[in-house]
Amino acid sequence: MPPPVKPPRGKYGKDEAGCGFLVNVIKSLGFSETNEERQKEKQKIEKEFKLSDQRLNDLVSNHDHELSQVIPLFTQVTTEIAASRERIHAVKENLSACKRLLQCRREELKKMWTDAVQHKHVLSMLEQINDLRKVPQIVVNYTSKRQYLHASKTLNDALTLINGPLQEVEGLNDLRSDLIVRRQLLYQRLHEELVQQLYYNSANEVMLAFQRSNLNRLNTNFTRGMGTRRSTDRIEATSRVRQALKEMSQGVNLLQSEIIEDVDLIDPELSMIYFIAVILECFGMLGKVSEALEKIRIGIQTELLEVVHNTTHHMIEQNLPSNEQYPLLTLLDIIFKQFKAIAKTHALVLKNFLAIVQKYQVVGSQPYDLTHFWSQAQSVLQLLLTDYLDIQNASADDDIQNSYIEPIRNMNSYFLRRKVSSIKKPLFKFDKSANLIHKNCSLTDTADPIQKEHRRNASDVSNDNLNFILNASTSKSAGSSFKGSQTNDQLRQKLLICSPDQGVITKVYLPLMTYIQEIEAFMKCKPGQPCSLHDFIDNYIKETFLSKGHNSNLQVCIDTLSKNQEVWRAIVSAEEMKELNLTRPVLKSTARVERCLMETKHLIQDLPCFSEELLKTVCCLLKDYREICQAAYRGIVQPDTEDKRIYSVAWLKDEDISRFLKTLPNWTDLKSSSHRLRQGKKLQRHNFEASEEESPLQVQQRNIREAEMLTSNLGEGGISQQEILTDISVLKELAILQESMEWFSMQISGFANELRCPLVNGLSAVPDCGAYVAVKDGTIKVLTNLALEFDELANVCLLVLHLEVRVQCFHYLRTNPQNGRVDSFINSKEDVLEPDRQVQILTKRLAEMDEAFSATLHARKTRYIFEGLAHLAARILIQASNYLENIDQVTVQRMCRNALSLQQTLSNITGSREVALDQAKQFYELLCMEPDIIITTIVEQGSQFTEMQYLNALQLSCKARGITDSNTLANYQQRLSDILGAKPSAGVVV
Questions:
Q1: I need a surface site. Which of 207, 373, 681, 947 has the fewest CB within 10 A?
Q2: Structural domain for 294, as ranges
Q3: Mind listing the pLDDT tens digit for each residue in 310-331?
Q4: What pLDDT is attached to residue 832?
């Protein structure tokens, strides 16, 4: 049966049994007004009491068995408590009796205990002295087995004993001195072992991984003799090391943890962790924690320099595979991986150092951190880059380059028609040479390692480590390849894997930025606070490579172009045309600037973080080159003085004429074909169809519009010999300038379009230049505007050539009664079967210009220049009739011969029959007809000429036939007006 449960106790509410119920009864009786109500309440309470009494009786009867069990149990417990009290009383009496017996022998026992303690202490001291004599040999044995934990423990215990309880023993003074010396030697040995683990083993693991990935074999110098070991031994050794590391972390007895003697049996990574933990534990035992920390901190840069030297030496001696063109990339990759491995080992060392400091409660020890390590690593990388980037000789080379800079002259002076005196200058200067060639170096021996002597300033080495490097120890452990004597000569001589070159920065920049990104992540640099190596690279690129290298070369190029006359007259060779994928020659100067532009493009790809600065420099230099090109254009079209007027250039300066020419369909069609050519659509040589929207009739109407515009702007005045470009070579130069400027504009536009896309440079999250380096829109807009300016200059050159051909037609065909050209051109008495002398000169000039343009301009541009010229020539020939006083058969034949000669020449040039000159022949044939026949022809065939031309023809026909009556002339004019006004023109108006 379960034990009885105690009923709950607590306060009762107003509606519950107990006091609350009694209060309710009293209230109900107090509020009752009659005895009947009180009687009812009494009966109700008595009824409830009977029910409660009945429930209580039921509960007692139900729990009668439990009560009968509780009463005997209570009696039994009371009996046992009484018996326990009696037994305790007996024990107290016995203890009192023992105490009285012990007090009787107290003095005798005390004397015997004192004698035993004295004898035991004497024996212990003798045993300690005997053990101390064996300590030196024990330490030697432990050290030879590399059981440094046992050796340190033994030495520490011995020195604690000899400086503590045995301090007053004078016979142990020599032994004490010997143990102190051995402790210092053991500390040095431990430090060498730690350096071996920190630098040598970490670097060798990276070198082994590199050899495996490139050669698929192990180098014999780095292979450990594991083949002869049994796998069971390796497994057992590894498990023992893991157990030892666990016990060391838990503070178990360290003497039981040092159990590995053969390090070749242990896994390399586990071996490093184990021995570092052991060595640092030894430092704590020997009390050398602070000293060891400071020595490691000071020696970081020296050891890293030794790592770099040995890695370079090993790569040269073993002839390891690398990038043949830039082996420095491979070297930097290996060195940075070695630095990361060394940093990982340093992190392990620092973690153990912190545990040792807390365990041994070292006071005043300030351990370095990985930030300090990466600071020293950056200094080493800066020294390495200083050697390969040849920063020492940059200023000397810049002085030599500046010695050749000459004053800038006016570009227009080179295009003046006068002899330019040539001044011979020495090609080379050696008075400021800064390069010193070693006497023993052979220029033909490329297989030997390259040795170079550098004149390094004290600032090349960090100030805190300079004295340490100069005063470094001259001897180290013979078993480590990192330990060797360093003299001042060895510090100045650096082993290089390739020749120093400032241009190497373009190949190593992106890998360096990746390394810098990782370094800044390790150092937790804040945004806007780059590491020192980042600042070094940025300063070198800005102050040396760009300002004294690339940008200086661009400036020298522009200065050379502004001073050298021959550069602007020379064109590229056939080989260069093939290399540049050109069909027409361009100026050497333009090709040279384009090469500089492409160099900048490659530099932007190699140095994406400096794209904005490079582009700003390029934009400034392109602006200078644009001014030079404009000066060259002015020198071609205005070679002598500012007062001389070239009519085609003057025409083009008229905004209305220029705008009109650019709105004509032949110009827009030429530009659209050039645009298709830019997009890579190849055009055949003779496959230049006009726009699909332009019909043959529209082509003729367009040419007529151009001819009318030009003749109307020319007015009645003629064009003198001084107002045209008579020299074909000048026109050829202008054509070459046009082709050069258009091609250069295409190159700039393509360059700007490529810059609109983000530059993927391989970086993942560099603080100052992310994975996608986008050039600012403002800079791209400047480049685009420059391209448009060069294209506009090309357009101006082409329009000048277009107008110059037409101006020369005016010059040779247009007559002017005021200068006597009517007699020389129309009334010439030369052979009728031959064209006039002026026409012969013009046809010869046109043939020469066609030959010059065909060799220098694209066929589509040549077609544009000569297209529509027949309409202008026909219009000029027809307008020549305005200056005729009389007309005869000879004059008509001569004019027809002139038109035929021009038609043949232009047909040979354009490759199509120029029907416009047929209209000129038909006009002069019309002059031989009777006036009535002229009117009848208009009615039958339709009008082919303008009303003014028909009126002029009627007047000349009437004069030739002696018709002078004004009424008759008025009648003819009225009939002509009625016909032309009633019928639309059916022919081609010229």
A1: 681
A2: 175-214+233-368
A3: 888 888 887 765 655 678 888 8
A4: 60
